[in-house]
Structure formats: structure tokens, C-alpha cells
Amino acid sequence: MDDLALVNQAGGTLSTLASTQVADRPFTISEYNHPQPLTHAAEGFPMIAAFGAFQGWSAIYSFDYSGNNHFEPDKLDGFFDIKSDPSRLVHMPACAALFLRGDVAPARQTLLAPMPLEAERRQLRESRSAWTLTTDRFGVDAGWTLLHGIGLDLKAEKTAEPARPLASNKTFLSDTGQLRWDVSQQGPVVSRWVHPGPSSSRGSSAAARSTSATSSSPSARPGWTG
């Protein structure tokens, strides 16, 4: 196991997860954790709560609270157990506010990767793995999750040309202006996001706009902050 901080990897696992989301369908993460003995384990839940809220995910399940019946241990008890790890457990109220209360608003724009039925079947035949059904395979680089929402479009009638990849910048600002992912300094740094306050409605779809990958890439991109 490599002891690496997710915050130093723009998108990382979170972008990979988002690239499997089907647009206009509920999307849940059934098991997520940054286990011991990772030095940066405390970053996991706050980051996925903020990122998932921005992507419009439906639910995130931690794995796990306890893997045995020792509910009051006096030491760290298991790689994934959070019951005895204050560095992870203490963040749960804040994570609930970020994700459930709507402190982080959903993306204002969603980039859709067309995945018609025949293209889906062809990809499954060739790869023999459902894990390859990602937006990257159908025209939208997962890196765009740092700026916008993304999703697979099952209603599309044809596939798209590969979209231009996200520029290799070091700082990425979400289209809501709330989340900023800064990888300009490698090391034990902390993820930062600009946060004006709770959004009025996390579930509102009126503010969201969708752009198909069959059209040209977005003409405007959020400004970078150093």
C-alpha cells in the first residue's frame, strides 16, 4: 500500500467513481474509506462528501463502522473500522452538512458522454468488464469532474468524438466557485474550497445545465486562482 494523499492527486479515485455515473439516475457509493495505517486517512470522508454533493450523488456509505462486536475499544481496531478512529469519526457531522444539508451545491453544468445501447454492448464484449463503462470511453475525460458534473447518457443515439482533455493546470475551480482543488504544492497539504454558505437547494435541477459531448467543448472555463 502506497501512503499517498488523495489531495495531491487531482481527481484521483473520486473522478474515477464519478465517471461511472449514469445521468438522471440515482448514484450511490456503497463502500468508501481511507483505511489505517494511511497517514492521510482523515481526508477521505470530507473530500468525498464535498465532491459527491457537487456531482449530485444520491448517497455515500462508509465502510465500515465496526467489523466485530467490540464496540468500545481502547485502540484502533481494524484497518477500516472508524468506531475507534477519531481522525475519521470526528468529521461525520461536517460531512453530513456538506452532503445532506446542501452546504456544497451541485454543479451548474453537466457534461454528458453519449453511450447508446449498441456502443455499450460492444464495449462489454471487448472488455468483458462493466468497470470499463466510463465517460472516458465515450467522449468525456473524467478530469472534467473537477470543474463540472459528468454522466453517461443512455438516451443518446450515437457516440461522440473524444472530448479534449482537461488542461494540466495545478489549481481547479468548480463551476459553482465553491470547490478548489490545488495540487500546486505536493506534500502534507490540506484540500481547500471556497464556501459562501449553505446552498438554497441541493436537489434543485433548475440551476443545472447539461451539455452533450457531441457538441463543442465548453467555451468558458472557470478562472484559476493561484
Contiguous low-pLDDT stretches (5 residues minimum) are 200-209, 211-226
For the CA atoms, what is the radius of gyration?
18 Å
The percent of residues in helical segments reads: 10-25%
Care to count the β-strands? Answer: 7
Q: Please count the helical segments.
A: 5
Q: What average pLDDT do the residues reach? A: 82
Please give the largest β-sheet. 3 strands, parallel
What is the quaternary state of this protein?
single chain
Overall number of structural domains: 2
Strand content: 5-15%
Q: Based on helices, strands and strand pairing, what is the structural class?
A: alpha/beta
Q: Output the helix-strand order.
A: HEHEHHEHEEEE
The end-to-end span amounts to 32 Å
SSE arrangement:
Blueprint: H1 12-18, E1 28-32, H2 44-55, E2 59-62, H3 86-89, H4 92-101, E3 109-114, H5 117-127, E4 149-153, E5 171-173, E6 180-182, E7 209-212
Parallel strand pairs: 1-2, 3-4, 3-7
Antiparallel strand pairs: 5-6
Helix pairs in contact: 2-4
Features:
about 230 residues, two-stranded parallel sheet, alpha/beta, three-stranded parallel beta sheet, 2 domains, disordered C terminus
Task: Characterise the protein shown here.
With 226 residues, the chain is an alpha/beta fold. It has two domains: 6-101, no CATH class; 109-176 and 194-212, no CATH class. Helix content is 19%, strand content 13%. It contains five helices and seven strands. The protein has helices at residues 12-18, 44-55, 86-89, 92-101, 117-127, and strands at residues 28-32, 59-62, 109-114, 149-153, 171-173, 180-182, 209-212. The strands form three sheets. The chain has a three-stranded parallel β-sheet with strand order 4-3-7, with no helix packed on it. It has a two-stranded parallel ribbon with strand order 1-2. Strand 5 (171-173) and strand 6 form a beta hairpin. Helix 2 packs parallel to helix 4. It starts with 11 loop residues before the first helix and ends in a 14-residue tail after the last strand. The relative contact order is 0.19. Residues 200-209 and 211-226 have low confidence and may be disordered.
